[in-house]
């Protein structure tokens, strides 16, 4: 079914084009023939998604479209299961119809595998793994709704720059994807189809890029086995020997081979020969023949071994070899225990993992956020974690934790690759990565400005630094400058992390820093499937107008500057949030602040608060399916769903200075934890509309509180969690942040 009422939206970009064609915004010509298998423009799926142009080329197993989410008012990518050798379109141009009865059986089998793959992806929460928003069945087939990314594939990037990258560039480009694979393996799953076409360099709003691993190959592999046609499901040059055989034992070593093949292709310019051809005569050239360093060449040779047991048996083992660590004897298959799903051998068809068994596997480590990497001064991203990363203490730093050839990205040229450092520098050299949370800042080395870094966008000094001690400094207006002495080690990466704590400026002494929020519609509340949800979180669609909201919670210093006293239970910390203030107290504060500034500050409505706190996310926390105490101040002695036995620490039972931890995607700090925040809305357990209005001072009813506090379990800092109390209640867990109508 198509929606003629939306003909003004361009299916190429979903911007209002009126009646013009081609689109004046993106140039898309919707009169261009689309082919018999492609859904018509503006087909409406699941009552929510409007189909647009095809992304990339339709593949043998399916088609990926750009689509418009009418509920969230955002673009998404939708992958449709449609193996063209088995099915076509019915007379309605929408319904998938198998070519024959025999094809129908295999089509249905593949459909189940496609849905299983969707369930697999839905369990994964990692910045370098494609995020699945939802999946559903319609038109006799199934659809996978994913985030939409702009950028280019790694294959395109290689082609743009001559088919080969310098070792320094390649090893930095191929970092976080290995960490994504670790997260995949930790859940007991395999990717099975790592190759340059399935790695995307996604552009970010800040000018950087993020590596995204797409298109898991389990569904195609299973269909190939069922149809006895494995040759059509392996990726030549990147598939290991065991994928050519139905009884081949697959495991993490399978993905290790493919990841190594991608890196080999990047540094040598040649794709490895097909594994089944190497059996008769293995003429794979060592990477050192192409000028690659002995350490990297040896690691690649080991990972590209034909015999699975001769390879590194896990991603961490491969990463250790890339660092040049001595190789231990390969583990016996019998010694790989079933209690560790990341190491246990798997059949070629993944089995569903029950929620209970999933809890046994620890949640992947969420270490430093370095997945947005301006590589060697180039805003490029990483794909297969192969770096040599060291901490100041010289311990290894652990990174944070295709049915179709269609591409859920818009093709866009990236800047040229940077020059590589000399293969054999005249003097010993090392490399430095500087990560900063809290704010973007200038970075200096021994007093010399070398660049800029910020949250999620570390500075990588890959041109080489002299070996020895250096002083690294970071500074930003309104924040405490910091310095640290480090030792740069030869041919190794040294990593250092800073957190910038805000200094109250004279203006901020009584005025908040506001973030402009563009209005929109979202699903307020939580889905019935969300773990540990409460009955008052009914999910419903809410729209908000443009508004502005405080970047930080109101501090003790800001309160005292207006009111002349500090009521806080945790007094003595000027930049900590004010607490022990009732809703009525806050109204008095607002009256005085507005009289003093001439502004019209207020509290946010409950709907505005959740819209801003979610920052476009639909997961339990703004950080994803899990949260930890590096991201929010709460009682981390407790667990949440599949996030591990405990999710962090309990910080001496107190608040933290505002902005001490990570901001959400829209730049708001402490929307999860630290203190509960008053909203201006009366609490209504049934969401009858009060969540979209501000109460007056004398209105009856409890007031809605949001965000959780320093004293709460992680379930209470979920974006949808609600609390309430009377307008006269004061508590050391309750504070607030300000809002106002649009700036």
Automatic annotation (TrEMBL):
Residues 345-354 have a biased composition (Polar residues). Gene3D superfamilies: paralog of FGE (formylglycine-generating enzyme), Phosphorylase Kinase, domain 1, Transferase(Phosphotransferase) domain 1. Residues 415-425 have a biased composition (Pro residues). Residues 49-328 form the Protein kinase domain. GO terms for molecular function: ATP binding; formylglycine-generating oxidase activity; protein kinase activity. It holds the Pfam family Pkinase. InterPro entries: CTDL_fold (IPR016187), Kinase-like_dom_sf (IPR011009), Prot_kinase_dom (IPR000719), Ser/Thr_kinase_AS (IPR008271), Sulfatase_Mod_Factor_Kinase (IPR051043), SUMF_dom (IPR005532), SUMF_sf (IPR042095). PROSITE patterns: PROTEIN_KINASE_DOM (PS50011), PROTEIN_KINASE_ST (PS00108). Residues 322-365, 398-426 are annotated as: Disordered. This is SUMF1/EgtB/PvdO family nonheme iron enzyme. It comes from Thiohalocapsa marina.
